[in-house]
Write a structure and sequence with these properties.
The protein has eight helices and 16 strands. It is of the alpha+beta class and 266 residues long. Helix 1 runs antiparallel to helix 2 and helix 5 runs parallel beside helix 7. The model has no long low-confidence stretch (mean pLDDT 94). The structure holds D-MYO-inositol-1-phosphate (IPD) and calcium ion (2 copies).
Length: 266
């Protein structure tokens, strides 16, 4: 695995775990792409869709994790949880962006965040339709094999700059920035902020599995996270599987407060 040098905090078995996680996400991604023509869709209580493929990907990942690491805990969106006593917790979103996946759009992905002793430590987010793998450990992050560095796009005057927003942003906020994009996957939006493609991302209220995989990338990219009210974000508050009480804003640290002031609730 290019770019990773084991340090005192990264044990060799942890590097192996991250390599395995990427293999598992690629395998699950092939399955999800192959199954796209034969989907069964149901709707959950919150009216969001879930397919046989969301459940199939979750089963594949849970099987791999529990066979390789029987003492690890798993918290997964579709409910296949494992409560063990180990220090490591996997936060899994089998498909983030299910609506886009069903519609045949490209921006959806499979997310595996790895928390150690309750702290977001490592993770991978793979977008099978476009072959993009985002992965990180501790304070290092990579887009495929390319290191993620502090953002060069942190200037709101940059003509390429955009804020990634949920599809209902126009009904909730006045956003005084000239360019918004809504691609259909919160995890992709967050990965694009880490990569410096999006200047910032506003989320809906979210779950730990929507964000855990991107937190190491944010450390690498010097991207901050704050609730839209300005309140500090603590991922540990979501470890019981609850949804955050507020939307979040992700942006490079030096502009996050400037961007937050551009977003006013309606
Ligand atoms: C969805 C995506 C989407 C967000 C929805 C989420 P899911 O995740 O992240 O971007 O707007 O609120 O539910 O349900 O496809 O895992
Ligand atoms: Ca999902
Ligand atoms: Ca999700």
């Amino acid at each position: 695995m290019a770019g990773i040098i084991a340090t005192q905090t990264q044990q060799p078995w942890e590097i192996d775990m991250l390599r395995l996680a990427q293999d598992w996400l690629r395998e699950a991604g092939e399955f999800a792409l192959a199954q796209r023509q034969s989907l069964n869709t149901e709707y959950k209580e919150d009216h969001s869709p879930v397919t046989n493929v969301d459940k199939g990907v979750e089963s594949m990942l849970v099987k791999h994790i529990s066979q390789s690491y029987p003492d690890h805990q798993i918290l997964s969106e579709e409910g296949s949880n494992q409560n063990n006593n180990g220090d490591i917790l996997w936060a899994i979103d089998p498909i983030d962006g299910t609506r886009g996946y069903i519609s045949g759009l490209p921006a959806w992905g499979i997310s595996a965040g790895i928390l150690k002793q309750g702290k977001a430590y490592a993770g991978c987010f793979f977008m099978p339709a476009i072959g993009e793998m985002y992965w990180g450990i501790d304070n290092k992050g990579f887009f495929n094999e390319q290191p993620i560095l502090p953002s060069k796009n942190a200037n709101p005057d940059n003509p390429m700059a955009f804020i990634a927003v949920p599809s209902n942003a126009h009904t909730h906020y006045e956003i005084s920035f000239r360019r918004l994009r809504s691609l259909g996957s919160t995890s992709a939006h967050l990965a694009y902020v880490a990569r410096g493609v999006a200047m910032a991302a506003v989320t809906r209220p979210l779950y730990i599995w929507d964000i855990a995989a991107t937190l190491p990338l944010f450390r690498a990219a010097e991207v901050g996270l704050v609730y839209l009210s300005g309140k500090h974000f603590n991922p540990q508050e979501l470890l019981d599987g609850s949804r955050s009480k507020e939307p979040l804003l992700a942006a490079p640290l030096e502009i996050i407060e400037l961007v937050r002031k551009m977003i006013k609730p309606k």
